[in-house]
Amino acid sequence: MSDPIMYLFADLHVSEEATHRKHNDRLREVLGTIAAMCAPGDAVQFYGDSVDSPTKGNYALLTQVISPLIDAKVSLSFILGNHDNSKTGLFWWNGGDAMFQAFRKHVSALPRKFEIGNCQMLNVDTTLHTWMPTDLAQGRVGSRQLRWLRSELDIARSRGMFSIVGGHHTPTNIVEPERLLDAAELFNVLRRGHATKYIGGHAHLFDLVTQRFQNNPGGPVHTQGGETEIITLENPSTKSLRDGMCFGPARINLATGKFELL
Predict the structure, then answer these.
(1) How far apart, in Å, are the Cα atoms of 35 and each of 23, 39, 136, 157?
(2) Is residue 80 over pLDDT 50?
(3) Cα 11 from Cα 101, distance rounded (Å)
(4) CB burial of residue 109 (10 Å; 0-12, 13-18, 19+)
(5) pLDDT tens for residues 83-114?
(6) Which helix (H) or strand (E) holds 94?
(7) Cα–Cα distance between 150 and 190 in angstroms, integer?
(8) Buried b / exposed e across 216-247, counting CB within 10 Å, b at 16+?
(9) Strand 227-232 vs strand 197-200: parallel, antiparallel, or unpaired?
(10) Among residues 188, 10, 180, which one has the least CA distance to residue 83?
């Protein structure tokens, strides 16, 4: 029996707009290829901004775009991004939160905490409700989720499992209008909990940073232990036909923790 695999995507930005048609078609093609690769026990996770704005039409189109995965009965997991969030930016009046939750039920999405193989997946909502334009939305994990994350990481470590944490915003993004406001606090929780990886999107670029347990001026405090890889999940080699729009895929072996771009 093969090891369980998690396939990873971020920032699909599916939209009914005419400028997105080739992009949507390209996504459906790539997801069809992934669906054919998936074995029983595999899963696909999306790290936010699955739609370009949270409208009913866009979520209906997203269902069509990911239909190869639905038809193949692949387990799916979705994280909320600022473009999916009804109270963020310019699209608050469209009711995106309610639509997103209805969409999750329609595709039988996995919960924010689940186990596959030797891995525990822990997902947080980093979207910060703000009146700033959606493309410039900052993020925050918040004290309640940080406490939950700290507890769950401790439990996983006590059980001999490794943990992968996911959120839309990544703590290494320091661009002021887009940054994660409590990045230092998140770093501390990830390190102290020995999280193997934190994966996000939002920045529309690929980046992989190894955060070691050390002092940084003005940053996280010193702790003892290993290291956490911070991955911003975009792969420029798979850019769609729409300029500036790129997405995964990548994958993680959930028995060994090995990460690779596809």
Answers:
(1) 18, 9, 33, 32
(2) yes
(3) 18
(4) middle
(5) 887 654 444 445 556 778 888 888 888 999 99
(6) none
(7) 8
(8) eeeebeeeeeeebbbbbbbbeebebebeebbb
(9) parallel
(10) 10
Residue with tokens 């493309």: 135
Q: Where are the alpha helices (DSSP H) in the chain?
A: 21-37, 56-65, 67-71, 96-106, 143-158, 183-192
Is 198 in a helix, a strand, or coil?
strand
How wide is the angle at C-alpha 101 spanned by C-alphas 45 and 250, nearest 5°? Answer: 10
Q: How many Å apart are CA 171 and CA 148, to the nearest integer?
A: 18
Q: Burial level of 118, CB count in 10 A (0-12/13-18/19+)?
A: middle
Rg over CA atoms, the chain:
17
CA distance 207 to 218: 22
Length of the chain: 262
Tokens of 169: 């915003």
Give the single-character DSSP code of 166. Answer: E
Q: pLDDT tens, 213-260?
A: 444 434 443 333 468 888 887 755 554 434 445 566 889 999 888 888
Q: Which of 8, 3, 4 has the alpha carbon at shortest distance from 229?
A: 8
Q: To which residue do tokens 């939305």 refer?
A: 137
Strands 227-232 and 207-212 turn out to be antiparallel
